[in-house]
Amino acid sequence: MRTVSIDGKAVSVFLGNKPGIPAIYLNTYSDEGQKIYEAAQAVGCPPFNLVTVSDLAWSHDMAPWDSPAAFKNGESFTGGANDYLRLLVKEIIPRAEKELAGPPAWRGIAGYSLAGLFALYAIYRTDVFSRVGCMSGSLWFPGFKEYIFSHEPKRRPDCIYFSLGDREAKTRNPVLKTVQENTEEIQTFYQNKGIDTVFQLNPGNHFVQGIERTAAGIQWLLNR
To answer: Can you list the residues of the chain whose pLDDT is less than 70?
Structure first.
């Protein structure tokens, strides 16, 4: 593993040590890249390169547009996703891929929670990713479902993985309780377009087994 700092973000590259294998880009909340890479090995993922980005301004970099806080005492969202995506595509990807044994077979983008939302949003703003992993994605985000239904991705994705904990929608919070309904509607929307997609329901709430759920999504993307 090699870690470099790019514009204040910590970028770690975990090498699969073979040329022509996929590269998956994963934005992380608390630098859990090493654990996720090890979990992916443990479940028998085929060789791949993992590039993780941490030290993110989470409620800014991952948010597609401004939105009020979803939680009591939470931070408001200030839409910085377009700026961060520009940094990812123009600086982070070229720098990370200098470490690889050769150009990747394909690039995927994945994330958990708000980073799952960002992963899906990214394909509407850039054509560099062909597979998406949206694990426990914050698809309750106000206006996001409507955005998906009214916009076209920059390239048609090869496949999209969705997952959610079966207790995530069981909340009194009127914004968050839409998460399962929205995820299912969005997944059905892609399925009806003939895109290879799946929705996996896992036991537990949002904070259970995030590492394992992320590794499971990566494994699915790699095995398509």
So the answer is: none
